[in-house]
Design a protein that fits this description.
Blueprint: H1 2-15, H2 29-38, E1 48-51, E2 57-63, E3 66-72, E4 78-83, E5 88-91, H3 97-108, E6 114-118, E7 133-136, H4 138-145, H5 148-160, E8 173-174, E9 178-182, E10 185-192, E11 199-204, E12 209-212, H6 228-242, E13 246-249, H7 258-273, H8 279-289, H9 296-307
Parallel strand pairs: 5-6, 6-7, 7-8, 12-13
Antiparallel strand pairs: 1-2, 2-3, 3-4, 4-5, 9-10, 10-11, 11-12
Length: 309
């Protein structure tokens, strides 16, 4: 566990390097917001609307009698909101005070109470939802309370300064994998406890919507070893076969099923690039294949996994 925590600190420091200036000093919220706004994905869903007049990006999708709002903050974290007839279900909170306050301000415009918070990945920022039911898998709850969340507070503090929400709030309800219903919304949860930190997929069967940790039209992926390529191909092949109308995630804007085609093509390219004998040629091939892809740091981290640091 100690080794994994140290590894996470190193990897997340790389991940956050895009939020820091060349001098190593923190960028302002405005500067990071501009970077986030420029980094929205190509190939936006035609059915998606975008809410204006907010620092973060807010996308609204109406799909199969559901309205799903996705708030993308300047830190790159996404909070998704399922709007039911009478209430709101929030999927993941925000790790910074400014984003939490803006997210709450946006939800106030919907004129419905937040009755349920679901945590399939990101557990910081829960003190803004005191008195609300907060649910996650047992694995995520345990991670949150046994030092895992504090690791990320320490890391994010270096990137976001006093804006980071340092309060660790226990998750007050756990749910099991399989079929669940909260606030009248049905979903199937599948937890990936082998990941660090653990994450959960949420399949909203009535809406034909999938929540997964990362989905993109044009972004590098983080793959832990060459052997994991087959696992990822199986996963995205299954996602494609289910033909979801919308895929939401913890990072980047919502996407449609075309993202599965990108992920599968990317994995095949990754497989070929992994035949290189050294890291430098691997990176060169991936950069040539995807010169404009987001999350370049994921490619570097994957290279370290494949070839060593």
């Amino acid at each position: 566990m100690k080794f994994k925590i140290i590894l996470t600190i190193l990897l997340t420091a790389i991940l956050l390097s895009g939020c820091l200036g060349n001098s190593g000093q923190e960028k302002t919220v405005d500067e990071m917001t501009e970077k986030t706004n420029e980094g929205t994905q190509k190939g936006e869903n035609d059915n998606m609307q975008r809410a204006e007049e907010y620092t973060g990006n807010i996308y609204v999708n109406k799909v199969n009698n559901a309205t799903i709002h996705s708030y993308v903050s300047y830190s790159g974290d996404v909070s998704n909101i399922i709007e039911t007839e009478d209430s709101l279900i929030l999927i993941d909170a925000q790790p910074t005070h400014s984003a939490s306050e803006e997210l709450l301000r946006y939800m106030d415009t919907l004129d419905k109470p937040v009755k349920q918070v679901l945590i399939p990945s990101h557990s910081l920022g829960l003190d803004y939802y005191e008195g609300t039911s907060v649910a996650s898998s047992e694995q995520i709850s345990s991670f949150n309370e046994n030092g895992g969340a504090q690791v990320f507070v320490d890391i994010f503090k270096g990137a976001f300064g006093d804006d980071i929400d340092e309060k660790i709030v226990p998750i007050n309800s756990t749910i099991k994998d399989g079929e669940n219903t909260l606030e009248g919304v049905k979903f199937i949860m599948t937890t990936h406890e082998e990941e660090f930190p653990p994450t959960s997929d949420l399949e909203f069967t009535d809406y034909n919507v999938l929540f997964t940790h990362l989905a993109a039209y044009n972004s590098h992926m983080l793959v832990g070893s060459p052997e994991k390529i087959d696992e990822q191909e199986d996963y995205w092949t299954e996602v494609k076969a289910k033909d979801y109308d919308l895929i939401i995630s913890s990072h980047l804007m919502p996407v449609d099923i075309k993202a599965a085609d990108f992920q599968l093509q990317y994995l095949e390219t990754l497989r070929e690039a992994a035949k290189n004998e050294n890291k430098e040629d691997f990176i060169m091939d991936m950069q040539a294949a995807y010169p404009d892809a987001q999350n370049q740091q994921f490619m570097g981290m994957t290279a370290d996994y494949f070839y060593g640091q």
